[in-house]
Amino acid sequence: MNDGANRDATKRSARERLQAERERQKAKDKRRRTLVVSAAVVGVLGLAAVVGLIAANTGKGGSSAKGGPLVAPSGATGKDALAIQAGKPEAPSTLTVWEDFRCPACKAFETNYRDTIHDLEAKGLLKVEYHLVTLIDGNMGGTGSLRSANAAACAQDGAKFSPYHDVLFENQPEETNDAYGKNAKLLELAAKVQGLDTPEFRTCVQDGTHDSWVKKSQEAFRAGKFRGTPTVLLDGKDIFADQANPLTPQKLKEKVEAAGKGGPGAAKPSGSPSPSASPSPSQASSARSASPSASASARSGSKTGSGTSSSGGTSTTSSTSTKAASDD
Questions:
Q1: How much of the chain, in percent, has pLDDT values that exceed 70?
Q2: Helix H segments across 171-293?
Q3: Please, how many CA atoms are within 13 Å of residue 176, restricted to the half-sphere of its CB?
Q4: What are phi and psi of 175, to 5 degrees?
């Protein structure tokens, strides 16, 4: 009798142990499934966060880490449509200017030569091809070169490039002050140009519509191995190369007028930049005091510019002499 009871008790104990083991296994499986689902949710949320971060870093206007779609401003010309042209297309002489709106030497050039250039443009004797670069952003940090160049390209879309270009140089902040990195400042200055401050212009500025185009222009500047800004070429020849006979606004006027008449001083198009572009003595003497970040070094083997150095980390600026301005 006791033996039968003991066998029954043993069987119940085995069944209970088996049932308990099954319950433990079910609980273990449930925990595993919970962990798998949780991990999947975390993975999805993490992916969403990464996608959101990428989207945030693309900037407005659909730009990407590589700069987004390249949108050239209206009427852009030259190789890869990287130049903004001012003056009449049929003008016999072409002035090619590489500039940075944060560059003090570029402002000095514009201050001294602007009236002469505009006069020659009005006479149909000269057209200017402007290439906008971001050299100071690279040397000093900030985004003012890029933001102002994009704004100028937006002004070109509204057929207001020349006056806005002049306003940006006339109101240029100190080289170390990245005021042009703020779109609000660029829009404020646009109010100085009649008819420029439109909804279309504001959207273009705020969205960085031409950012990739500006970056492409900077790449072309680097590929050209120019040392600095401004780099200024008249019919493909550097107009600051002859240090023994420094250029002045008056001499530029005479060269262009002679070319227009086909005279002995006529400039001959060369189709390619001169391998040297050294500043005039008066520019070189001014360079040391024109910028707080002056540097005498540049890339080895590079073409010489007449203003801000493209060598990494610092910049060299120059200005045209007072005599050059008075000769206009």
A1: 61
A2: 183-190, 199-207, 211-223, 249-261, 281-290
A3: 6
A4: -55, -35
